[in-house]
Amino acid sequence: MERKVVMKKIGIVGKGLIGRRLRERLEEAGYKIAFFLGRQAAEDFPGLLVRRDPGVVFVAISTLDHGEAARDYILACVQAEIPVITAEKGALAYHAMALKEHLSRIGFSAAVGGGTLMLQYARSRNLVGFAGPVEIQGVFNGTSNFILDEMSRGRGLGEACAEASRLGYAEPGASSPLELINGELGDVVRKCCVFFNTTLAGPLDSLTPERLGSFVFGPEGLEKLARQGGNHRLIVSFSRSRKKPREKVVGTGVSATLGGWQISAGFRQISPADAIWLPGGVGNALHIVEGELGSGGKYTLSGPGAGAEPTTSAMLNDFENLTG
C-alpha cells in the first residue's frame, strides 16, 4: 500500500481477525499504531483520542449489540475531526440517522460486499436520481453463498458449514449449523439496511432491522435447506418498479417498503437469468437493471466477500480515499 500523504499514528478498535490483519498490513506499510484495543475500549475514548492523537481510527469489531458500541466510537472520532473507517454493520443499520450527516468522514465500504466495494459503486450510479424503474439484486453474504455453492457440488449442509467455519468465513460464536445459518441471516438483514441507508434512502428515510423483520430458521427450516439448498442462493432485492418481487422458496424471508422501494431477502431458487451474475464460492455480487425492461442497461459487480483479506482491503481502500 503506497502512502499519498504523511500520516500520523493510527488507532484500531477490535482485536479479532480483521483487527489483527489490519494491524499487520498497516505496520508492514510503515505506519505506527497509536492504540490497538479490544471491543471494550478505554472508558474515556474521547480522552484517549486526545492523548494518543491518531490521524485515522479503524473500528473493526463484530456486531454483538445493536451497533451502539461502533456508533459511539464513530461519533467520538467524528466529533474529534478524525476520519474513521468501519467494517461493522450495526451502526449504519440501527443508527443511520445519527450518522448520515457525517458520512463524508466515515469509510464504510467494508460493511457490505467484502472486497467488492459495492457501496461505492452503487452510490456512484446515483440510483435514487434515476428517473425510471430500477431492479437491484445482490449476494451480500459470502458465507451463505459458499455453503450453498458447496452443496451444489455435492457436499452436505453440515459439512459445508464446518468448512466455512474452518476457513474463517462464518460469524463468530456459532457452534452448530443452525447457529451458523441464523448468524448469517442476521448479518444479511443488517447489510440490507446498510445498503439502503447509504445508497437509496431519501433525507428522512432510514431502514432498520426491526422494520425489515427477523429472519430465523428452526430445525424444520434447516432440514428443508439441507434438502433443497444446492439449487438456491440467499439473495437480496431492491425494486423500484411495478413488478412483484420473486418469492422466497426456502424459509419466510424478510421484506419492507420504504421510500418507493420494495426490499426483500431470502433463499431463492436459481433461475437461468441468475446465472449471468451470481458469484461462486465466497463471492459477493451486485446486479443492477435500469429502465423499463433494462432499457437503461444492466450492470454487474462481483468480487471476494467474507474473510479477513478482502475486508481489510476494502478498509484500506477507504483509508486511501479519506486521507489521499
Q: What sort of overall outline do the alpha carbons produce when their principal axes are compared?
A: globular
How many beta-strand segments?
A: 11
CATH class of the largest domain: Alpha Beta
Mean pLDDT: 90
Q: Count every helix, treating DSSP H or I runs of 4 or more residues as helices.
A: 12
The protein's oligomeric status is single chain
Output the CATH homologous superfamily of the largest domain.
Dihydrodipicolinate Reductase, domain 2
How many domains make up the coordinates? 2
Q: Please, could you describe this protein's structure?
A:
- α1 (17-28) crosses α12 and α7 crosses α8.
- The protein has 324 residues and is α/β, with parallel strands linked by helices.
- It has helices at residues 17-28, 45-52, 68-79, 90-94, 96-99, 118-124, 142-152, 157-166, 177-200, 209-212, 219-228, 308-323, and strands at residues 10-13, 33-37, 56-59, 84-86, 106-107, 134-139, 232-240, 250-258, 261-269, 283-290, 297-304.
- It has a 6-stranded antiparallel β-sheet. The chain has a 5-stranded parallel β-sheet with strand order 2-1-3-4-5, with helices on both faces.
- The protein folds into 2 domains: 10-107, 3-Layer(aba) Sandwich (Rossmann fold); 120-304, 2-Layer Sandwich (Dihydrodipicolinate Reductase, domain 2), CATH 3.30.360.
